[in-house]
Structure formats: structure tokens, C-alpha cells
Amino acid sequence: MKKIPVGILGATGMVGQNYIALLAEHPWFEVSYVAASSRSAGKKYGEATAGRWLLPKTYHPSVANLVIEDANDVTRAAAAASHGDLAFVFSALEMNKEDILTLEDNYASAGIPVVSNASANRWTDDVPMLIAEVNPDHADIIPLQQAARGWKKGFIAVKPNCSIQSYMTPVWALLQSGYEIKRMIVTTMQAVSGAGYPGVPSLDVIDNIVPYIGGEEEKSEMEPLKILGSIENGKIKKADAPLISAHCNRVPVTNGHTAAVSVEFGAKKPSTEQVKQIWAAFRALPQELKLPFAPEQAIIVHNEGNRPQPNKDRDIHKGMAVSVGRIRPCPVFDLRFVGLSHNTIRGAAGGGILNAELLKAKGYFT
Amino acid sequence: MKKIPVGILGATGMVGQNYIALLAEHPWFEVSYVAASSRSAGKKYGEATAGRWLLPKTYHPSVANLVIEDANDVTRAAAAASHGDLAFVFSALEMNKEDILTLEDNYASAGIPVVSNASANRWTDDVPMLIAEVNPDHADIIPLQQAARGWKKGFIAVKPNCSIQSYMTPVWALLQSGYEIKRMIVTTMQAVSGAGYPGVPSLDVIDNIVPYIGGEEEKSEMEPLKILGSIENGKIKKADAPLISAHCNRVPVTNGHTAAVSVEFGAKKPSTEQVKQIWAAFRALPQELKLPFAPEQAIIVHNEGNRPQPNKDRDIHKGMAVSVGRIRPCPVFDLRFVGLSHNTIRGAAGGGILNAELLKAKGYFT
Amino acid sequence: MKKIPVGILGATGMVGQNYIALLAEHPWFEVSYVAASSRSAGKKYGEATAGRWLLPKTYHPSVANLVIEDANDVTRAAAAASHGDLAFVFSALEMNKEDILTLEDNYASAGIPVVSNASANRWTDDVPMLIAEVNPDHADIIPLQQAARGWKKGFIAVKPNCSIQSYMTPVWALLQSGYEIKRMIVTTMQAVSGAGYPGVPSLDVIDNIVPYIGGEEEKSEMEPLKILGSIENGKIKKADAPLISAHCNRVPVTNGHTAAVSVEFGAKKPSTEQVKQIWAAFRALPQELKLPFAPEQAIIVHNEGNRPQPNKDRDIHKGMAVSVGRIRPCPVFDLRFVGLSHNTIRGAAGGGILNAELLKAKGYFT
Amino acid sequence: MKKIPVGILGATGMVGQNYIALLAEHPWFEVSYVAASSRSAGKKYGEATAGRWLLPKTYHPSVANLVIEDANDVTRAAAAASHGDLAFVFSALEMNKEDILTLEDNYASAGIPVVSNASANRWTDDVPMLIAEVNPDHADIIPLQQAARGWKKGFIAVKPNCSIQSYMTPVWALLQSGYEIKRMIVTTMQAVSGAGYPGVPSLDVIDNIVPYIGGEEEKSEMEPLKILGSIENGKIKKADAPLISAHCNRVPVTNGHTAAVSVEFGAKKPSTEQVKQIWAAFRALPQELKLPFAPEQAIIVHNEGNRPQPNKDRDIHKGMAVSVGRIRPCPVFDLRFVGLSHNTIRGAAGGGILNAELLKAKGYFT
């Protein structure tokens, strides 16, 4: 089978490198187009990243010879698309919000679907913010988005912030099982890779933690409500609950965000044992469709008393599973647990790829 | 002025070393007696700790030549006390609970007051669990304890667990200002020194956190209720509130426990600005008495957005101050903040020394 | 093909766990026998290691149900061997030297070959100390060892200390190319996993390094001479050179030993460019035999100026390759370079497995 | 006594902050003038550094209200000097070399002595590169420098790179005792603070080391030769020996550079015991003059087998002492040892202050 040619916008940055590394042996997609800032444009990808490659895992040899395009020059991408050499792009752009909004719009209006990791379009009300196991049906807004904008093939779909991924799937599994969640207090201990590269200065995390990450608490409190929302009149309407309080901290961990969560249920409250069963049994559309990046088990329940831990559990199912543990009653609310997910895989490039697989399976790349 | 001769039980362990280092230049107390397990007994302190001294700060030269006594042999301490060479002991014993209960009892009944860092007697109902700024009046139970046990000079007083000290003084300051606190959800990020030495294996905290500390959550949820309790019929009666949920985590930090706290007030709720003012203005008995180890300012309010941080703020006022920051509303409860205190100073040996100073000032060492 | 049944002595310890994890999908070997201290004997392996499994990678499901034997009870192993259920054992024993000497001897004399990770037999003069790429011919001493001891099937073969593996293969490649090496000064920066678990206390490596590792410098200076030695009169005679000075340090790294090396050649000195070519072109017997654990490329030459680095390069070729970089002249000697290898894979269990593959290919497991 | 008013060029950067913190209670000097880039000029120091103050230690309250001058505007400094409000400046400039050369020259020619931390003038042949204990006599070149340049009061004096300070004083003590040193091979494990702030990205040092620091090895090999050189014809002539090979590595340590050193002596070789005695007995001019920042003991000999260590020993004598340990024979050369010094105190701002004290004591600030 000929693979689907995909592009990466922001291909030389940290998230872009992750996309390219994770796609090295993808069964459906192959990287055919790389774009970055005008500074890198014109160089071969291998040369542009020599000495600046940040990951242990490397990329497909063919990518080394791709010439980097200027991400601002949409005409190049449009030409590639018209020749059948580019089916869609992953956006890993690192720019200011306004520029990203403009650029993602330009790609989409040029007929190139955009599967984005950037936060710029997360609150655009007809753009779905997808976690493939949680709200795959939000993809249904894509035809409405296209109709409203007058786009034929292009569209924009985004993924949420990495900080919420270690508990959103577990939360969803409980909601789906009929347990209303009214309120949550969440404290995250987040890996430095979440800030990119160079990102967090080492002086800030050797023998230290930083109890603040700019903008992260606001995103953590708001994004779940859109993800749990519903499509009404061509827009995604936010859910009313749960009400969330997020305390976000940076800790000396390379990869893997951990969250300590207290949950208050509605009138119907599951036992600890029921919670474990719900999570262990959880299957969703990506698992049913056997999407290539779908973790075999979306939620891994750890029964050992001191797990999950970032350096032991972040790589389960190639970094795509969410680990939960320390499932126990909360003296103040109802339930407490610890959630963990790999922030640059599940929470960024891997999550984006899974979203693209979902959209492919649903027929949105035509 | 002749200094008061004091003893250290468990003098070679990590907490014992901290006591000895912190007392090196104490204006009131001097270490005259060191006791440890029978294994170390008979050696000079300097020799026993050569190559095993864990701290950057060292001890008073005179301590090097003290011969270590067997901590189980109370008669040696009693003899020293009878000659005026030992006024009281700090207990930094590291044994099982039963043995510590017996031993601290033996010292006290031999006429030697015990100011203890150990957890064994924390729930003995006529033993005060003191934070000098919070419940100095609980020392009033000492005469009742002595009467009930038939002790004349001896008594036992303890300090609480290190994990709660980064928020208990701020909590107390709010209570004292008339704001009832109903519930709290607290997530701690605790330093490895809290587990002593060798303590936490390095493989557990390089590029990792451990979301579990044995027994710590239970202590964190219960001890505040005794500290906030009242003396009734010769016993300390637990307070009813606040109800606390604690999530305790080990992080790669040497010293300094950080807590992310959400607080639910009663009907009367202070504004963020009022909270800051209450904390900045807080003074307590140790400050009034100008006790040597009392921090000039018991609570340090940080207004920078990303503070307090362990490696920048733990040493304020020689490690005895509690730092607070990120004081802001909580979307779920009422107030959020981050607290920080130095766990081996404020939270252990330094806190014990401050308690002893308080008891001295109140006339309990006679 | 039926797999060869192998045993692990010391199966519950850190090195033992590594063996079991690495053998999970081995094409030739399968773990059929696990032995540990009498404390664990009688328990199923899965139960004995529940909550104590130290690795991200897990083991073959069938191992969970193996009942742990007492490693001191050689008769159990002998019985298994006589039934064809045990072909040889990997020794990952953690005991004192005398006990290991006795025990490895007992297994071998009971007809069970011992491929050992322990240091006890490294200086037994008829025991080969193998690095499969460097001195595979030292296996030739096995028949002589068997004859001298009166053993028929059993024998003992060991591997060297992990600290030297990041530079011994590069050193050998230069020697083999005809460049005599007279002297070397080596400074290692070693990962904490080299000390096992619990191993190095976290207080020793957070914001710290320890410039000492007990016994490591002596091993690093002596073992290369045996490895580079020759078989004479049924014994391995030490080589005369190179003379080595080793400075061994512990650094806050989980896995991956790094070495900074200065090399003094004899009269014939290669250029930097020649050194790079020799290393890039190096192939040895494991590569020729295509042994399952042989790295495709035994020595990886890094040309970027700041590599190799532990967290980016230790896992190349599944942790079995040695990385070299910063190849440049030495102002004092002739050549400088940085070597890196994964200490628990290449330097321990993985190296042991490669040795066993080599011995299998040479026909020593009969 | 009225204190001497001093200025800091580059006052808001990391080295500048260190100068200001260390001078907070200096008995001779007080900070009266702060200069930085034009971006900060015009702001009060306290405001400009709010939320950007990098150190646990804070500054003298009076500094908060100093208005930051533009470091490029020498006329402001000249005016202050003419009013007796500025006696000399510490240069902690972080610019490119050419700009620093010009600027330091401008200050000096404006009559303002420059005691510099920057590397720009280290190889200017009439500029002394001082370690106060090693080559205080190199200050004698100052009048020659002034004469050659036509400067009356102004001059430039610099300090060497931080990487060499953990072994240069010990090396000097041996040379001074009559033991010629022919060659040295040195491997450093350097703290991240040496790269300033933000400096080293955390992703590079969590679970990692970087075996490369740009320019550091060259400096480490060359600067000792100037320091050990002699004044001839108005210039400092490099010494011929020792020949040095430096391997410089970045490790996950906040403060404190550690060096593993192998030394080859000339014909006369001291015993290990003699080396220890020489170092323990070493006193130099700063100690004789009792300069405020002179460590009471310039070289601390550690006899414990695993010391010195950064987080235990860097702060001895307020970070101004050099620690040595593991003093033992070298199988390849003659002597091996481990040296440690605090890179931002002894190796940067503290060393600069000690140099200024020396120059003051010698009468160069007139």
C-alpha cells in the first residue's frame, strides 16, 4: 500500500522532531514535507538538525534529504498537495498565537487539513479538540467547519494541552460509566520536556521544583470542559462540569507528567473496586479500530502501592497508555488517584498522530 | 552565663547530626551528652561519625571528644542529670515504635525531660505535640502529665511530622484571625532528606518522582487536629476541623518540603489580599519572646509569581521560616497557595530546638 | 526450534532482573530456572518481585510462575540439568566473594556451565574474562579448565567490570590495527545503577557527585590486562600494557557509564582521522556470527561536538553498542576521546548474554 | 570608616548578582553604582531584578534603590568617580569579546580601575590574571600597564576561568615547595551555574552529563601558564610548564566544579604524605594580610575516602576555600587527587572581590 504523504510544520523544533521520530516506521503515514522558519528553509533536514537533534530515537533515512520549506509559504504546500504529494500537515508551530491562527487557517483554506499540536485554535468554537479515546465524535464538526468556512478538503483539528492527559481518559471512563463528576482538585508534577528546548533552565530544576507554569492552570481548568462538551448549532458547547482546580508544578523529570487527583462525584458514587474495574475494562474507538498508535490498553491500572512513576511507567504501550495507581478514597472528596502519561508522546506528537489516524479512519483525508 | 547541658538520643543518625550541627553555637544550650545504639557506644563522637558525617555544617569541637553512651542505658543519663551535667534530652531515636515509647518513658521517669522528634508519642493523649508558633499553650499539659505519671522533673513533649509544617503555621494564622477552615486538599512534594540516610535510593529519584511515602498521608491528615485541639481533663482533645486530604510525593530535592494547598473556609471568607496581610503580619510567642531559633518573621509572603522554591527559599531565617506564595483564589474551594519549609531544620531538629527554647522560657527545665 | 533452557542465579536482584527482562524474547534461550537466596525460595517469581520490579521493561509471562529455587542448593539445578531442563546458568549472585567462588564451583562441578557477572572468579587464572568483541579466543581455555578440574560439561566464564566497557572495545580496535598503547589515563563518570538497588543514596547524588567508588579503580586498572592477555600453559597470562590510571566517579545518571580517556601510543601513532576510520570500520566475531545480542555496529562514532551523552546514546543497538566521540589529539599524550556504554546492558546482563551466545556458537553448551 | 564605593558592570546578570549578594556586608566595599545593558538602564535595581533574582542570598537594602546606568555610557561612571562616588568597577559584562575589550578599556582610560571577571582581557599581555594566593606579585605590572597606556588611575586586572581554580592553588603550593610539575591530565565535572542563567537546558542534565563545554578546555590548558609566568619587559611571559590536557564535562550540579587530576613531577617527587603536609600548611599573601574574603585556610585537605563532594564541601570558608582529597599515587604519572571549588564564589565573584581586596591592600585604588 502506498503510504499517505504527510507534512510537518515546525519540523525542526522539539515537537516537530518528535513527530518525525515517531513517524519513522508508521504503517500508514510517511513524512514527505517538512517546513520550518525561513531561517531553516532551503536546508536539507538532516543538515539543519545535525548537532541539534534532541531525541534518542532517530528518523527515517529518507527524511534527512527532504529540503525544508518555509512554513509561511503555503503555496509550496498547496503545490505539493495538488500533485498528491501532501495529504495533510501536522502543525507543531512555535510562534505567537496570532501568527499560528493565520497560518493554520491559510493551510486549511488551501485545501490542506491541519492536525495541530498548537494551542492557538483550541478555543475556536468549531474546531474539535480531540483525545481519540474520549471525544472522537467531536470530529463530526469537521463538515460543519468546512461548510462555514467554505473549505472543501481543508480543516483544522487540534489536541488539548499535555497537562490534562494523565487524568482525562480516566475521568472520561468514569463519566461514561454513569458516574457524574462535580469537582476535581488536581496537582500536576510536570516534566521539563513540556517546555520544549532549551526550555527550563537547569538551575531551576536541580535540587528544586518550580510551583508555577505560565498559563498551564488556566488551560487545565478550561480544556476538559470543551472536550466533554457537545456539538450544538455548528459549535462545540462547553460542558458544565467538572469544576476543576489545577495546581501545576515543574519537577526534575525529563518526560512524563504525573497528577495527584481528588474527585467529587455526584449522588452516585462508585466504590474503589468499581473504579478499578471500570478503568481496567475501558476500551474506546481507537482500540476497536485497532489504530496503529492506539495503546492496546488505554488505561493501565497499577496495584503496587508506589506506582505509577515517570521513569518506570511512561513508556508503556510505546508511551501512549495512561497509567493510574494509588486508587483510594478521599477523606474530603470521594476518590483519589495518581495519573501519569508521557507528555511528549501521548501528550503531544503521539496524541496528534493518533488523532490523525482517527480522522483517516473516519474518512476525513480525501 | 553557663549554658544548659543537653543530650541527644540517636546522636549519630541523620536527625541527631542535625541537632548537633544546629546546636554548635547555641546561646543557651550546649551538647554535653550523646547517646546512640550499643554499636556506637564507647566511641568518641568524632571518631564514630568520621566519614559518616552527612552535613555541610559541622559541630562544636568539644562534641568530637564526647564518649557516646548507650541510649538504652538510662542510668548513665540519670547519673549525669544528678550531677547537673544533663538538663534534658532531644530524642532523635530511630527504632521501632514500642522501643521508643519505652525508652522515652524511662528517661522521663528518671527525671529527664524528653523533647522528641520521634513519632512514637505523638498520639499519647497527655503528650503535647508542639509547633511553637501555633500551640505553645499545649505546654500547659506538662504539669498534668507529670502528675498523672508521678514524674517530678521529667516529661515528654513532641513535635509533629515534617510534612505539615509548610502549611500549618499559615493555616493557624488564618484560624486565629477568625476564619474557620472546613476542608483542605494538600499535595506535598517532599525532599529526600525526610527519609533519612541512606533513605531514598537514587534510582527512585533521578528523572523520577515517587507518588507515595509510607504513613505520611495518615500523619498529615491527623496530626493537625491534635495541634489545633484543646486540653480537657488532662488530655488533648482533637479539633473537629479542618478535614484534610493529603497526597504525599517524593521529589528529587535534597531539603525543603513544598505543599500545594486548596482551602475551603467557613461562612466568613477572607479576600486574597486579606490573607496576604494576615500572613505578613503574623507574630507569635516565639517572636515575642525572641527565642534564639525563632525566625524573625514566621511566615514569609512571596509575591513573585514562581516562588517559593526549595533551593532558593528553604534557608530563609536559617531554615526556620515558612514561605508562602502563589496566593490566589481556588475555583473549587476558596483559597490556593504554595507553602514551603525546610524539613530537616524547621521540620525536624530546628523545630525541636525551638520547642525546647519555648519550654525553657516557660520554666519547664528546672 | 526448541529454545535452550537457562537458569539465573540471583534472579531477584537488580542484575538478575535485567537478565530476565533482556531474555524475555531471546531467540535461542528461555528462562527455565530461577534461583535466589533462601528467603525467596519457594515463592513464585512473579509474587517475589511484585512491588520490587525495578525496570521499565518486564519479563516473559511464563517466568512469573517459575518457583524460585534456593541458589545454595545445587542438587536442584543438577536434577533439572539431568532432565534436560537446564543447559547452563547466568550467575548474578550478590554475596561475598568466598561464597560465590564456592557456589560457582559447585554448579560447574555438577555439570552446569556458569556464565558469570560476579567479580569473584575474574582473577581465577584459568577462567576466561570475556568481552565478546575483544577476546573471544579466550574461550579456548575452557577445555583446559575442564581438564584441570576434572569437569566434563561444566565450566566457568566471566565478564569484566562494567566500568571498562566504554573504552575497552575502542582500545582493542586500535591495538588490533597495529597501534601499540603504552599508557592511558581514564576518568569515568558512572551511573548509579552500577551500584544495584537500593545502591547509592539519593542524598549523595542530588546536586552532587561522589569522586569515589569502592574497588572500581583497581578493577579498571587490572582487568584490561587479563582481557588483553594470552593463554599460556593452561592459564591466562596478563598483558604487560597498557598501564592504566583510573579515576572513578559516581554521577547523577541512572544508566550509562561515560569515560574521558587520554591515550599514549607507542612509536606508531595513528592520526585522529585514522582512529575514526578504524573505529567506524570495526567488526568482530559477534558481528560476523550475527549473534542475537551483537550490536550491528560495535563502535558508534559520533561526530557532533557534544556527544556521546548517556540519555541520548546509551540505548543505541539496544544498549549493546559502545559510543565514542570527541576524538581529538591530547596535548599531553596522543589521543583523547569520550566513550560511553550502557552499564546494565552492555556492561552487565546484556554482555553476559552475548558471551553465552558466543559460547553457544563455539559449541561449549553440549 | 567610610566604605569604598564600587560599581558593578553587568549588575543584573548572574555573575553581577553574585557580586552584589557577596558584597552585601563587605567591610571595605559598598556597591554605589550599578550598570547593565541599555534595556535595564533607568530602572531601579530592585525593580529590574524582581522575579529575576537568582540567588538564595539577597543584597543590601540600599542597592534596591540604585538606578541602573547604561554600561556603555562611561561618562556616567566618570562623573561618579570624579565626585568620589566610585573608586573602581567589577566587570561582569556578558557581551562579545570585542565589545568588552573596548568597554573595559574605556573605563580604565576614564580613570576607573576595572577588576574583571570577563575573559576578554585575559590574554592582553600587560593585564595581570590574578589568583590572589598564587600570583599576587603579578599586580606589579599595573604601573607598567598604566605607563604604557598613558593611564593615571585606571587599569585592568582580570581573574582566570572558574574551571582551573579547583587545582591551581594546590598546584602552586607544590611548585612553591620546590616540586617541578611537568605534565597534568585533568578531567573536570563542572556545575551548571558556570554557564550562567538560563545557561544549560534542564533536558541536557537530568539523567545526563554533557562531555563538552565550548572553549573551556583551551582556557584550562593555557591560562595556568600565564598565571605561573613572570613579568618581563612590561609583559607577562608565559611559563613553559606544566603541559596540561583538560577534559571538561558538564554535570547535574548547581554549584561547585570538581577536578580529577593526574600529575607528573620532575625529577624530585614528593610522597603522598609530603603532598598532604604541603597543602595543609599552605598560607599565602591573602591569609597573611587577613583580607576579608581570604579563606582562613586556602586549601582544605580531606582525609575521608569519598570527599570532597560539591554539596558538602563547596561552601567551606564561605565558598572561598579549595578542597582536595583522594590524594594518592598515580600508576601512570606520580600523583592523583580530586580538587573542588565553588565556581560562582571562589571561581567568579568571590575571587574577583578577593583580587580587589589584594589590589586595595597593595595601594592600587588611589
How is this structure best described in words?
Four copies of one chain form a homotetramer. Chain A has helices spanning 14-22, 45-48, 61-64, 74-82, 97-109, 141-149, 165-176, 216-227, 272-281, 285-288, 310-313, 345-361, and strands spanning 4-9, 29-36, 69-70, 88-91, 114-116, 156-158, 181-190, 230-232, 235-237, 243-250, 257-265, 299-301, 322-329, 335-341. The first copy, chain A, has 366 residues and is α/β, with parallel strands linked by helices. The first copy, chain A, folds into two domains: 4-161 and 349-361, 3-Layer(aba) Sandwich (Rossmann fold); 162-342, Dihydrodipicolinate Reductase, domain 2 (2-Layer Sandwich). In chain A, the strands form three sheets. A six-stranded parallel beta sheet of chain A has the order 3-2-1-4-5-6, sandwiched between helices. A six-stranded mixed beta sheet of chain A has the order 10-7-11-14-13-12. In chain A, helix 1 (14-22) packs across helix 12.
List the helices and strands and how they pair.
4 copies of one chain form a homotetramer.
Chain A: E1 4-9, H1 14-22, E2 29-36, H2 45-48, H3 61-64, E3 69-70, H4 74-82, E4 88-91, H5 97-109, E5 114-116, H6 141-149, E6 156-158, H7 165-176, E7 181-190, H8 216-227, E8 230-232, E9 235-237, E10 243-250, E11 257-265, H9 272-281, H10 285-288, E12 299-301, H11 310-313, E13 322-329, E14 335-341, H12 345-361
Parallel strand pairs in A: 1-2, 1-4, 2-3, 4-5, 5-6, 7-10, 12-13
Antiparallel strand pairs in A: 7-11, 8-9, 11-14, 13-14
Helix pairs in contact in A: 1-12
